[in-house]
Amino acid sequence: MATIRALELKWVDAYKQRQIGSVGALLAEDYVITLEDGSTYGKVGFVSYSAGPLRVMWRELADVKIRMHENIAVVTAAYHERGELAENLTTITIG
Asked: pLDDT tens-digit profile of 60-71?
């Protein structure tokens, strides 16, 4: 599970640093994320979203839970960030 936790932190850091290629390489093809407004993105949609105008200044990954089902890991967590979007300061919570 330590390897899975390290990979989770690696993609979160790549997202913060806007390393879009790394984000895409680290996400599974069937990746799904739910944003604070209830919208969901698959891998392609989230990579496109990540390339958008948001610049993450601070991030926190909390309450990480890893559940193993044979050779499949399911990771859930609470993700919080603060960044700049189109010259406005915004707080976005993804979890």
From this structure: 889 999 999 999
